Every structure is written in C-alpha cells, then in structure tokens.
C-alpha cells in the first residue's frame, strides 16, 4: 500500500476506535475504556501529523510532536491495564509509572526537537523508546495471575511482537547509521512502511481487547450474581443450612434414586427443646444465636453426602443417603450429646445455660416408600421423643 495512504487510513481507523471506546465507556463507565480511547485518539493524531510530513517535510509538528503522540498510546495502554488490575497493583507504583512516563515524554520532545534533522537518530531513539513502552504492559500482565485469561494472553503476545518489531527496526537503523550507503533513504522509506504494516494490526487488536475484557468481566459478575440468587433461593439466611423449599425437591429425587438402586436412606428430625422459653427469657436475638450454634454443630457431624436443612422454626432435618436407621441412630445420639454440651458466648445468655434437643429418625423401607410417609414416620418418632421427656432419640 502507498505509505501516505496507509498512514492516513491508520489515523482514521484509530479515530473510529476511540469513538467506539468512548461510546462503550458511556455505557459501562469503566475508566480503563476511557484511557484506551485517549490512547487511540493520541495515536490517530500522531499518524495525522506523520502524514503531513509527506507534504511539509520535517518540522516540530511532523517529527517530534507526532512521535510523542504515538508514544502516548503504549502509556495509555499500560495505564488501562493497571486500572483493570487495580486490586492487585500497588497504587503508588501506578502513580510512579505515570510520573516517570510523562517525564520521559517531556525529555523526548526536547531531545527530538534538538536532533530532528538528523537522518537516523530520531528513528533509532523513537523505535527504542516505543519498544520499551510496549514491553512494560506485557511485563505487567506476565506477573499477574490474570494472565491465564485468554484475552490477556493475546495482549501479552501482541506486546512481545511489538517489542520485537521495534527492536529490529532500532538495530536496522543503527546499522544504517554506522554503515551508510546510497540506498539508505529508500530502504528507510520501505522499512517505515513495513513497520507500520506490522505494528498497526497489533496495536489495533489491543485496543479492541478491552471491550472484550469488559464483556468477560461483566459475564463473570453475572455468574457471581446468579450464584448468589441461587444461594438465596436454596439456603436459609439465618443458619446457612439448606431451606425447606430445596428440601422438598431434593428429598423426592433422593428417594427415587435410592429406591431404584436399592440403597438404604434415612432422615433425622431435630427439635430444640423449650425453644420458645429461650426467646421469651433471653430475647429473639439470643434465640437466633442458639439456632446458629446448633446449625453449625450439625454441619460438623455431616459426612460428605449428607445434607442438613432448616425444616422450620427451631426444627432441623438431616438427610442421610445410603444410611441404615442404625447409622442414623448413632449420629443422632452423638449430636444429641454434643448439643447438650454447647457453650453459648452471648451477652444475653448465662454462661452456664444449657439446651437439649429431641430427635426423630425414619428409614426408607418397603412400607415407607414415599416422601410423605418418610416425613410422617420421622415426625411421629419426634413426637414420641418429646412425649417421653425430651432430650432423646426415637425411631419411626
């Protein structure tokens, strides 16, 4: 492609990218999108000033200033990555980088103005400078665990490719400077075109990686939100146990599976004795604390496949897959003793206060084949435990 046309096309392309990123920023309001848009506008302005060099020759605008605007792109890129990785990057390091980068640009502008009419040094200096500036964001993402993200890995490889291309141009120009020949000017012209042809797609791809990153971050946040909603739908907020709604559907599934496979299945109903007196004597906050302590203790007794539910009020249920009633009896007895030994560290509850619980257990059998029958048997056993003086385990 004709070099001036390529440069002008690049300026228009990055202007369009900048407009797109600004529009995306207005919707998403993430600062890394805004700074990447600034980088695109800066790169477009640098290309436009470079384009003017073909008509007006080398001057302060077409060489020093154009290169400064081009160098702002990798700085904005690094700044955007640092914002995206805000939780894992030290803010002092972030500010230090910006101060150093802007200081380097000011020095570069002054230096380029002083040597802008030299044949090779401006190209050698700007190529080396941009190589370092594009390497920095690559080194940042290389050190972060987030590099396992596919888009971040792509950005890393793009930065490394830019670094290699720019270092190669630096070495070639340095060779021209040390060993001049009559074809140097033509070679430099063609090399500039090749450099743009290689670097523009890499830089362009990096600018478009950020909306993709934003989309992926939004998708991750959506998954987290859905998980929280699912948890709210299945977990009791006070105790952290599974709730009654989830119990009904899960218990039916377990009964069907165990009947099909011929495995034993038991359930355990737990009722805290005289719980109403706890609320009346110490208050509802103290009662909530007691429920939480019992729920936490119950969880400690669970095996890998066991499930604990808040059945209602002060009642809990434990689902024991592949467990015969004798196994349920052993677990219930151990849990009953532990509940009676609980210590309550609560300002409204006396240090020597103790509670007890009654247990009713039932097993899936030939006579007890459905959910209603299983619950009915456990409920009858619980009633028996309470009528016989509480603080005991009965089987249905």
From TrEMBL:
UniProt keyword list: Membrane, Transmembrane, Transmembrane helix
- One GO MF term attached to the UniProt entry: diguanylate cyclase activity
Which segments cross the bilayer? 6-25, 37-56, 68-85, 97-117, 123-142, 154-174, 194-213
What's one Pfam family the UniProt record gives for this protein?
GGDEF
The signal peptide annotation in the UniProt record is none
Domain GGDEF per the UniProt entry, residue ranges: 263-396
Look up keyword Membrane and say if it applies: yes
Protein name as annotated? Diguanylate cyclase
What high-level taxonomic lineage is stated for the organism? Answer: Bacteria, Bacillati, Cyanobacteriota, Cyanophyceae, Oscillatoriophycideae
């Amino acid at each position: 492609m004709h070099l001036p046309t390529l440069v002008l096309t690049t300026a228009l392309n990055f202007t369009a990218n900048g407009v797109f990123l600004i529009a995306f920023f207005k919707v998403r309001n993430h600062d890394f999108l805004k700074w990447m848009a600034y980088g695109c506008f800066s790169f477009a302005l640098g290309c436009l000033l470079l384009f003017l060099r073909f008509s007006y020759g080398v001057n302060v605008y077409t060489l020093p200033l154009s290169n400064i605007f081009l160098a702002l792109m990798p700085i904005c890129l690094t700044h955007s990555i640092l914002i995206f990785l805000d939780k894992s990057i030290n803010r002092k390091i972030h500010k230090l980088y910006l101060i150093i980068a802007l200081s380097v640009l000011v020095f570069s502008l002054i230096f380029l103005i002083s040597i802008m009419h030299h044949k090779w040094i401006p190209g050698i200096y700007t190529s080396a400078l941009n190589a370092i500036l594009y390497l920095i964001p690559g080194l940042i993402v290389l050190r972060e665990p987030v590099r396992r993200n596919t888009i971040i890995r792509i950005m890393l490889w793009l930065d490394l490719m830019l670094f290699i291309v720019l270092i190669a141009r630096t070495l070639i120009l340095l060779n021209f400077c040390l060993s001049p020949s009559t074809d140097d000017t033509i070679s430099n012209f063609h090399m500039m075109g090749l450099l743009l042809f290689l670097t523009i797609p890499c830089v362009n791809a990096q600018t478009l990686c950020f909306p993709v990153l934003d989309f992926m971050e939004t998708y991750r946040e959506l998954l987290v939100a859905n998980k929280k909603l699912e948890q709210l739908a299945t977990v009791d907020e006070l105790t952290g146990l599974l709730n009654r709604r989830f119990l009904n559907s899960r218990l039916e599934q377990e009964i069907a599976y165990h009947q099909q496979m011929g495995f034993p299945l038991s359930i355990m109903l737990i009722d805290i004795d005289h719980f109403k007196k706890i609320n009346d004597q110490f208050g509802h906050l103290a009662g909530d604390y007691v429920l939480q302590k019992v729920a936490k203790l119950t969880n400690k007794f669970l095996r890998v496949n066991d499930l604990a539910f808040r059945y209602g009020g002060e009642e809990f249920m434990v689902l024991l897959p592949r467990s015969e009633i004798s196994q349920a009896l052993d677990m219930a007895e151990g849990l009953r003793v532990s509940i009676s030994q609980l210590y309550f560290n609560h300002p409204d509850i006396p240090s020597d206060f103790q509670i007890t619980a009654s247990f009713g257990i039932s097993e899936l059998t030939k006579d007890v084949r459905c959910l209603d029958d299983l619950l009915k048997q456990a409920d009858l056993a619980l009633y028996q435990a309470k009528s016989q003086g509480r603080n005991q385990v009965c089987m249905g």
